[in-house]
Amino acid sequence: MEKYSLLKLFKHAHKYHENWQRAWRNPTPKKVYDVVIVGGGGHGLATAYYLAKVHGITNVAVVEKGYLGGGNTARNTTIIRSNYLWDEASQLYEFALKLWEDLSQDLNFNVMFSQRGVLNLGHTLQDMRDIERRVNANRLNGIDGHVLSTAEVQDIVPLMNCSPDSRYPVLGASWQPRGGTARHDAVAWGYARGADALGVDLIQETEVTGIRRSNGEVVGVETTKGFIGARKVACVTAGNSGVMAAMAGLRLPIESRPLQALVSEPVKPCLDTVVMSNAVHGYISQSDKGDLVIGAGVDAYNGYGQRGSFHVIEHTVQAICELFPAFSRVRMNRQWGGIVDTCPDACPIVSKTSVKGLYFNCGWGTGGFKATPGSGYVFADTVANDRPHPMAEAFNIDRFSSGALIDEHGAAGVAH
Known about the structure:
This protein has helices at 2-17, 42-55, 87-101, 103-107, 125-140, 150-156, 184-197, 241-247, 310-323, 372-385, 399-402, and strands spanning 32-38, 60-63, 79-80, 118-122, 146-149, 172-176, 180-181, 201-203, 208-214, 217-223, 226-235, 255-264, 274-277, 282-286, 292-298, 332-342, 349-352, 358-362. It is of the alpha/beta class. The protein has a domain at 115-179 and 256-342: D-Amino Acid Oxidase, Chain A, domain 2 (2-Layer Sandwich). The strands form 3 sheets. Strands 1, 2, 8, 9, 10, 11, 17 and 18 form an 8-stranded mixed sheet that branches.
């Protein structure tokens, strides 16, 4: 009887799924596009979507060497917040957060955005001074933020070890109630489906091997499927932006490093917010499936490997177990690494370049996922109008020669 039921289930599953419509087309590349976007992650797909929706530019191709959303978009811990220190960064991230709040409705696709709040812990008096400074700066910019005492932190997270005798005593925290998490693959799928519906070509399994120029102007990209002409080329290849820039004869002030994370076996709901600690380089949240999602800081070396170093994970797990002793009994299921490219001031590059028609969106470091909607929106505007969007103007590549840097190491000092 059981065997019959399983066979019947398989038969009906195949019968009813075989005629499902594709989520997006699988087109053959055209000879020429108005815009070719290199990189089919969240930022690249968002750029394509807003180019089509906001600016009416639909003759666009997104060229991805693997599958859509299979790069760093699938290799992060999905934390979303906007409580950065400096005006330029906080305004861009807050703009992104406001887009997140309506993104499921905009895309007609559930990205599972959960505003469960984000805690940034303070373990020393200097930590608390920095937290007070950042929260005050946030509030001046209209961004929600609160400074919490140890008792208030304990009320929000009863499981946390807030004893004064702990290795990492919790003196307080910053609290952004509107922060939270989203489902990373759903974000990529939502933007991909939306862009495809507006006429954008999504070209997968196609690696860009060169950027062709003529008289100082971009004319297209060389790919493993042949040359694709383009009036404009927008590169959004997190982790590999330096490699892409070299194809056009440019050198970017970025470094690429592995960033690690891990996930536990599912456990019953016990943590309903995001807990971050710059001091211990660890952060944790619980997914809707019950997994504990734990992230670390970047590895100390430059590279493109996606494994990372065991000692980084070991240190992070030790710190998390000090903060949450009960989690020492939970088994870890898997570990992964992504590649992040970071700028000297821990802020991104969203900019035109010295090559006419060539644009770069990169250097988001450990904060790329949370910026996805805002990044795509302002980059699409920059590409469409061939001038910086007002919110992207401060992130022009020229700041590294002018000295107008935006130092966000304090707010972006831990991967998140």
